[in-house]
Prior knowledge:
- This protein folds into 2 domains: 4-215 and 385-423, Glycogen Phosphorylase B (Rossmann fold), CATH 3.40.50; 218-370, 3-Layer(aba) Sandwich (Rossmann fold).
- The protein is built from 14 helices and 18 strands.
- An 8-stranded mixed beta sheet has the order 5-6-3-2-8-9-10-11.
- The radius of gyration is 22 Å and the shape is globular.
- It is an alpha/beta fold.
Amino acid sequence: MSAYTSAQRTPGVENEVERASAPSTDVRPARSILLFSLEPWDRVWRRNQYIVDGLLRDDDRLHVVFVEPPSDVLHDVFSGRRPRLGAGARVAVGFDGRLTLMQPTKWLPRFLGSAADRMLRASVRRMVKRSGRTPDVLWLNDPRWAEMLRAFAAPALYDMTDDWLAARRTIREHERLVRDEHTLMRRCEAVVVCSVGLATSRRDARPDLITIPNAVDVERYQKPASRPADLPNRACAIYVGTLHEDRIDVDLVARTGAALSILGGVCVLVGPNALTPQNTQKLALSPGVLMLGTRPYEAIPAYLQHANALIVPHVVSPFTESLDPIKFYEYRAVARPIVSTPVAGFRENERPGALDIADAHDFPAHVAEAITRPVAPPDPEDIPNWHCRVRQFADVLGTLVQAHAANEATPLPAITGDWTTHRDDH
């Protein structure tokens, strides 16, 4: 029998989570989903891939069209890169033809006006028309596709995973994001957020929002793996995730690497590099810092299992306060010592000796001490698995389809309260 556990209980939350987590017998499932993703479908898996993978495996009648971020031809040219056209529509391997990937090409810069987005929307409409499959649900993760709500009659879900209004963007980009988010909050039949921070900041706009946190593939992360050949044969403090100034404190990483190099250790960064050329060069030249770049999601557990310590050198900002870091769950699954700056997700779950919180001044010293520990104490709490999150999404999507078919407003399951509450499904 499944049990619900939480480090910080909120009265009444357990029953609300159970209603949304348990399989529903009276909710009509979605059969065709058109998803606009912030991330591509590639070898670096994020929330969207885990949820879509689970939905497709649980329902062999489901078909998903996964729209990836467009290829920006002119941006490639101005950035000195070889221009690359979008990959277009193609069938993903491994799902019996039920997952279609689509990457459009962005031909014009947005500062010239609305033509760029009109062309992008038209390319998606043409692809959907050619497929002959009308979507039951629109799933918008990238707010820049908000105007697609006008193109289809299907009910819509806004899946909000980051507070882009708090990120550092140009004035023009920020104003556009404000408009797009306003459209989504006003017109989408359901809004899902991944974190307490997002739930708190958006509940006034959408009192009915649903909180579905992140999780981890527990079994895969705890299955013993060999040490990666490119991992240095010395004490390693490892960070896994995209390198981006919105998240990473570049100066802190450099100082941490310098502190570790004195001890013969190294700070290893595993993940896509979205840093500026200047910050990339700074880390590349920093003693004790090694950037390995992107590694496929299948390989990530091996890096984490063979770390002496796992680190989160994030900036503390309104943007990072909106996150529910997937790495929190992945780090917990492998039971290695963790050192983090006081960011959301980690800060509330401090356990000295297992998960230490340190400010930027003390962070390097804490990491230097952590790499000497043989292993982290076992985590006393159960770790949430993606299976639970998949069922929660399936219920929300199915309720939208059912309400649309009945042409009436059907109340959505409410999942509110403490984000650490979860179902034990591993």
